[in-house]
Amino acid sequence: MSSLKPFSKLPGLNTANILLVESEEQFQQSLADALVEETSVTVNVRLAKSLPLPLENEESRPRIDLVVFIINLTSELSFQSADASLKYLDPGYFLGKVCFLVTNARNASVPTERLDTVRKLAASLHCPLLFAEDQTPDGVTNATERLLTILKVAAGLVPLATALYLSNLTQCTVPLDIDQPSFD
Amino acid sequence: MAAKQNASGSAESDQSSLAEQQTSRSFNRSVRVAEKERRKTEAEDPFVPALKYFSDVEAGTPLHGNDEFERNLVLVEKVAYARGLSPEAISIMLEFAMSLRMGTSPCVRILKCLIPATVVPQEAVVRAVVWLGVGKIPISTQILFIKWVLTVFDMIDSKEQLRAVYGFIFSFVTEENLCPFICHLLYLLTRKESVRVFRVRKLLELQSKLGRQPFLLHLLSLYKVFCPELVTLSISSRMRSGFRNHNSPWKSSLIAVQKRNGSLLASSDSLPLTIKDKPNSRKRKYGHLELPVLNSLVNKQAQAESPFSRKLVPLVQLSSFTQLLENIHRIELPAQMGSLLGSSLALQYLDCVQDESALLRLNFWLGYALHEEFLFCGDGRASQNSEEALQFLDKLLSTQHFLQEAFSSSEAFLYKFLSVWDGSLLRPQILSLLSNIPVVPSSQIGRLLFEPLMQLFFTSSLFFKCGLMECLNNMLLKWLTWHSVYALEDDLDISLNSHTSINMTLSGFKDSVMELVHFVGRLASVGLQLEGSHSLLLSFILDFYETVCDTFLKYGLPLVVMPPPGVFYPALFSPDPISVDRLAFIMYRYKVNLTSAKSQEKVTEQAFHISRQTFREFNNYVVIMVNCLWNSKMFHPGMGVQLGEELLLKSNVPQYSTSFDLVHHPAFLSYAVDFHLRCWPGRKDVDLDSIKHSKPWSWYLEYLYSQGYDGLKQFVPAL
């Protein structure tokens, strides 16, 4: 079992590499298409269904700057797969180079416990948790922009900011029960 | 009617409802006439005999192998899903289903296809409710029926008779499985007269048995609004909003039918107060976000018959403000509170009467609508009706602007929505709604607002950052305005929102404002750092500080918070002269505020105390600005920015200490060159240092002022 390491390879000049992990392979592709449109830096997108990544491409694979787990909240499997993949990441990644992207969070068929579980997972790993609207073109564009914002920092392309610094600001927190704020 | 309220036996109420059916038929004649027109065209339709079959079929007819039944039912279903059923068809089918003439099995199937095309006749509903009492219908079917009533509630043509059997409906709350749905129905039907001691007692008894169930609490909270003396229970003002009785299958069919009919029907009536002219008001219960049309639920004839009831004037009959004033003591609120949002007269009424129950109902409706449409969407619905969502939120916003305050349900919704927001969906509307929220207590503000906003801010684009800055600026402006309006002079308590029960002390309010200003300071410092001091973002941040620097003089709030260095220095060293000028203006306003606060402190002795730290920070900033822009002592020891001597020498910048004075500052360099050319037109080589001599220097300042740099113009003489 090999784990993905954040600093085992040298970075490319003005290049950022992102790995999108999604068990259902639905949102991945449209996101990847939008991500490579970025012109200010060269963005390489790698897609995976789950981790670990196969050994045979190990050599040619560039250094991965950001690992994104896409979780579709309507499917329990999607979460389980992401959860199982986490252990194939080097602990160094959790210093700001992992983020979770959740889709379908506003869907009526999602049990509230599942969102809470994802939140708890992201919070325990100190990772940011983003929400995305994968159904609309605007939603995809926006999700792309947000991932690029994080990716640029994680790849060291933003002066004065590091991945750890940003993740410290954006990491997920587990909210207490918002339903009944005790105002009175 | 009084007799009927106590009716428990089915026979008695059956009879009376039959009698009512007869009388109320005439009330709905206009509806019938319209229907007759349609019926003519459907004369040859096989649908008519199908209905006749269901109205005439004998009790006990076997169901198995009954092809005739099957054929007719399929026909009805087809019509129902395509066009919806006419009021008569609803009556016939409902009567057939609930009477169990052919057993329980067709009942569910028929209930599922009862999709009204226009209205649901109330006598049909009353009859069906009566059938519930017979007690042969399986409990799951009873639930289905109540759910159906809830779904089509707004389409029931009048609710008077349903209200009359309030007691009868109430008797079903003891049925544990039915209770949540019955409570919801009762919530919609309750009027002041319906609140009785024995009912309150019953509900409390149930609560002790079932626990603090939200449906019971909701009903009790409504009872409490009507009769506070009867319900002593303390109920949190911000409960989980809404009964969660989602009726998806009906809703989606209803949307389909309504949409189809909506395009076919021409507008026939246009009320001056309504926002929509469409005759078939689409209501939110069917997953629609269009506001319902203001309808009257008072039946005129029924009213004439009962001289006991106070004469009520429905809002829909009023067309001018004068009429509103004349009738303000006897306004009948519409059945659908959502329709109030569309009518300016109704809003005026709400605003001046401060009717708690109306606001509670409106909040309930709104909370329900917002939750269902934005937090519990069906598949793909979000993309489907985004246009409607947009209009709905715009309407809500204009209402809030009109009332100049937010609804507590929209506030509760926002907190939840922020935690699952992607940052782009309906961004302008969400940010505007957010800027309207009333003051959040400082103990809650971090968790409710700052945490989700911080995550969104730092992961989103520059434009989102600017948008959020603007939103927070508006929020602060509103809070300060509320303060200046509601603060009572002698005692420092302020009641911020007349409609909610949050009363805040001045120090509590100050804490919240301070939290907000510090939070924006943090966002701004780090945001500028991440975005490379982008001048657009800087401009929005300076907007915010233009509000902050004037809190004392403009809004009478004894609070002065200085900007953090992360905002001050990027503005001071900005390559864009406008930012520097605005910073000068802001510092000037700080100075005016601080001096007036200080003088007031001396006069009144007790007023308040601005910490020495604030004065120290201000003085420090001013010294830095003056040293930097005038005295060319950029890197002198004791300044905010310090660099080692060797390092500065290494940089090979000649005269580094002058590099940010008004002549050499990157923002003003072009002005200096232009001034030089005008001042000494003959000179071949440009020597900017010659501007520093006292005479040309004052000319140069005059020249800068003439270019519109009013901030500098005010800042410089004030020193």
Provide a descriptive summary of the structure in words:
The complex is a heterodimer of chains A (184) and B (719). Chain A is α/β, with parallel strands linked by helices. Chain A has a single domain (15-170), classed as Rossmann fold. Helix content of chain A is 32%, strand content 17%. Chain A has helices at 27-35, 76-85, 112-124, 137-154, 163-170; strands at residues 15-21, 42-48, 66-72, 98-103, 129-132. Chain A has a five-stranded parallel β-sheet, sandwiched between helices. In chain A, α1 (27-35) packs across α4 (137-154). The longest helix of chain A is centred in the last third of the chain and has 18 residues, at 137-154. Chain A is globular and about 45 Å long. The relative contact order of chain A is 0.18. In chain B, strands 1-2 form a two-stranded parallel ribbon. Chain B has 719 residues and is mainly alpha-helical. Mean pLDDT of chain B is 77; it is low at 1-24, 237-241, 263-288, 296-310 and 489-501. Chain B has helices at residues 2-5, 10-27, 29-41, 47-56, 67-83, 87-98, 105-112, 122-134, 139-152, 160-164, 166-170, 179-189, 197-210, 214-226, 248-264, 300-305, 321-326, 344-353, 356-375, 381-384, 386-403, 408-418, 427-435, 442-459, 462-486, 506-530, 535-548, 551-555, 565-572, 577-604, 612-629, 645-650, 669-679, 694-706, 710-718; strands spanning 313-314, 331-332, 494-495, 503-504. Chain B is 61% helix and 1% strand. Among the domains of chain B are: 2-178, no CATH class; 630-718, no CATH class.
Task: Give a short synopsis of this structure.
Chain B: Residues 1-29 have a biased composition (Polar residues). Chain A is α/β, with parallel strands linked by helices.
Q: What characteristics describe this protein?
A:
heterodimer; A: alpha/beta; Rossmann fold; five-stranded parallel sheet; 32% helix; 17% strand; B: mainly alpha; two-stranded parallel sheet; two-stranded antiparallel sheet; 35 helices
Low-confidence stretches of chain A: 178-184
Strand % of chain B is under 5%
Strand order of the largest sheet of chain A: 2-1-3-4-5
For the secondary structure, the number of strands of chain A is 5
CATH homology group of chain A = P-loop containing nucleotide triphosphate hydrolases
Q: Identify the biggest protein-protein contact and residues per side.
A: A-B, 43 and 43 residues
Task: Give me the secondary-structure category of chain A.
Answer: alpha/beta
**Count of the domains of chain A:** 1
- What level of helicity do the residues of chain A show? 25-40%
* Distance between the amino and carboxyl termini of chain A: 54 Å
- Enumerate the spans of chain B where pLDDT stays under 50 for 5 or more consecutive residues: 1-24, 237-241, 263-288, 296-310, 489-501
The largest sheet of chain A, given as strand count, sense and whether it forms a barrel, is: 5 strands, parallel
What is the strand content of chain A?
15-25%
Helix content of chain B: 55-70%
* Helix run count of chain B: 35
How many angstroms does the end-to-end distance of chain B come to?
82 Å
InterPro entries (chain B): CENP-I (IPR012485)
Family (chain B): Belongs to the CENP-I/CTF3 family.
Protein name (chain B): Centromere protein I
Keywords (chain B): Centromere, Chromosome, Nucleus
